Amino acid sequence: MRVPSSWQRLSRDDGGLAFQSPGPHPVDLLISIVTYRNPYGVRAEEAIQYLDRENVLPRGILPSMETGDGPDDADERHWIAYAVAQPPDRQIFVWKVADFQPPDHVRVVTLQLLVPGDSAADPELSDLIDRLGEEAARIKFHPGPIQGPVQRVTMRNVWHSDSVRFRLPWDWQTLQEGDLTLFHREMDGAGTLRVAMHQFDHTGDDGEILARAVLRQTAEQFADGPDGRVGEGSVEWMPDGEVMARFVTDGEEDGEQLRFFLWMRGAALEGKTTVALFSFAFPQSSRGGDLERTTLAMLEQEIRRAVVGITDSTEIHDEEDELSDGFSLADLLDDDDLLDSLDDDDDLDIDEDDEEEDGGDEGGPIGRA
Fold it and tell me: Where is the composition biased (Acidic residues) (predicted)?
C-alpha cells in the first residue's frame, strides 16, 4: 500500500510500521500484520471472528468482501472499518483486512489512524480518511511461507440476546431453545452450558438507586440458594459496580444425576438492572477428572470477562411483575420440579517507488495519501 511521501517513518518495538504526518498537529498511522492459525480450520464466512478478536463491535456487523483485480487473483479478502473515541480527546480510525489461507491460516492487516484532539479540526482529515480506506481495500497479499507472529486461535466470540457476549472454545456448538442459548461439545459427558438474560427497568428519580439495590439483592439471593436450593454460593463485586455471583448445587435431569455450576453476572446502568445467568450442567458420573477441571476453569475465566450490556433491541422486563415472586433459576436448570419458574497477516509492502514519485507534493500539513 502507499502512504504520503512526506510522512516520517517511526520506530516500533513490536516490529510493525508507524508513520507520522508533518506539521504542528500531526496524526500517526500504525500498520501491523498478524497471522492466525485455527486448528479447527478457517472459513471465510467467519471473517468477523478474526477481524474483531477483541469482540467490541455490535452484533450483526458484516465485513465487506473484495476479490483480487487480476484474472488469477480470486482470493477473497474481507475487511471492516470503524472509529472509536479514546478519552479524553483522541479518535482512532481502524481498518482491518483479512486474507484466508486454507486450511488453517488467516492473515489480518490492521491500520490505525491516531488523531489527537488538536488535529481533529484539520480540513484535510476527511480526505485522508477516505484515501486510507481506499488504500486499505487495495492491500495486496502475496503468496509465500507464513512470516511474522502466528497466534493460535482456539476461542470464538459468542452472544446471547444481543446483550451478553463472551468467548467459548471453537468446537462448542450453539443451539437456540426459546429464550435460552445452549452451548455444548459433541462428546459424551462434556456437559451443557445454558445462558439466559433478564433486564429490569427502573423509572423515576430513584431509578439509579433502585437499579443498584435490585442488583445487590439479586446477587445475594443467588448466592444464598435460589428458591431454597441447598448448595454453596458466593458474591464478588467487580470494578465499575458489576457483580459476579456463584452457586453450586446437585440435581437431576431426565433421570441423570447432575451437578449444576451457576454463575450470575450483573450490572446496574442508566436505571436498568441487567442480569446474565449461566448454568453448566455436568454429569455426576464424569466428575473428578481433567475434563471437569479444565472446563470449569475456562468457564470461570470467560464468564468473568463477559460483557453484559444494554442495546436498543433488548427486551426490558417489568420489575413489578417479575421480581414480586423472588428470583428463580428454573429456566436455567431446565426442570420444572426443581424450581418455580420466574415467568408463570506475504507481509505488507510499502510502495517506496510510488512515494518518491510524489515527493515534495505534501498537500498541506497532513500530506497526500
Answer: 338-361
